[in-house]
Amino acid sequence: MRELSMCRLLALVAREGLQLDGFLTALVSAAKHDPYLGLGGSHGDGWGIAAVSGGELLLYKSGKPIWEGASLGVLQQLLRSPLAMIAHVRRASFGMPSGVGAAHPFPVNLSDGGLLVVAQNGTLNVSRALKLIGRKMPPDNVDSYLYAVALAERLEEAGSLAEALESLHRELEEQQAVKNLANTVVLLLRRADDSWDAQVGVVKHVVDEASFKYGELYALESPGLFAAASITVAENLDCGLQLKPLGGNTVIVVDEKSLQVSRRSL
Q1: How many Å apart are CA 77 and CA 173, to the nearest integer?
Q2: Residues in domain Glutamine amidotransferase type-2 (predicted)?
Q3: CATH classification of the domain holding 197
Q4: Count of domains observed in the chain
Q5: Is residue 204 situated within a structural domain?
Q6: Which residues contact residue 159 at a Cβ distance below 8 angstroms, ignoring those fewer than 6 apart?
Q7: 47 pLDDT exceeds 60?
C-alpha cells in the first residue's frame, strides 16, 4: 500500500466550550497505528494544522511524526473554541517529496488578502492534475499542493467555496486524475467588508472500490459543533460523540460563525 498516499484528516467547526483534547488525541492514536494499513501501519511522514479562532490564525507544519516532540502540547494550549480547524497526519506516497515543506496543510494566498489552506488524503495523477492549473507549475510538486493551486483558481472565479470544490472534483473525474481517492479538508479565510470570515470544506471523493472502507469519512452535526474525520480518527474518539459515515461522495461547507452546513453530492 506504500505507493498510495494514505493519510488521515480531521475538520472541526465549534462554538465556545468545546474541549479539543479528545479530537487531537484521536488523531495521534490514528497516526501511531492504523489497522486499515495492516500490521505496523502508521502515518509518520509529518503532520500539520490550520485554525482560525478569536481573530487569530494558526498554521503549523512538521516533517516529524505527530507523536514526537512537544509541539502538539504547545498547540493545544493555543487552540480554543470557538474555532474553525483542519488537521492532517501524513503517510507519503512513493516518490513524493518528504519533510516539512511537503507536510500538509498547504496554504495559498488569495487576491483579496485571504488564505486558502488545503489538506488531503489520496493520490492524484500529477501530469493530469497539472492540466487543470492555469499557470506553469513544476511537475515534481506534491500532488496535493497542485490541487490547492487548482482550487484557489476556481475559488477566485466562482466566489463560492462549495461551487469551487464541486467544479474541481468533477474536473478531476473527467480527467481521470484521481488514482484512488481525493478526500479533502479545506480552511478558507476571506474578507467580508471590515471583518474576516472563515469556512471549512470537507470532500469525500473515493473512486477505487478497494479504497471504499479505508476512505470513508465520518461526520457529526450538532448544536454548536460540526466535526468530520477519517474512519480511524472517528473510531479513536473517546468523548461520547457518535460520528456517522458520509456514504456517497459529497461536498460539505460549514460557516464558522453560523455553523450553517451545506451539502452537495458528487
Answers
A1: 41
A2: 7-266
A3: 3.60.20.10
A4: 1
A5: yes
A6: none
A7: yes
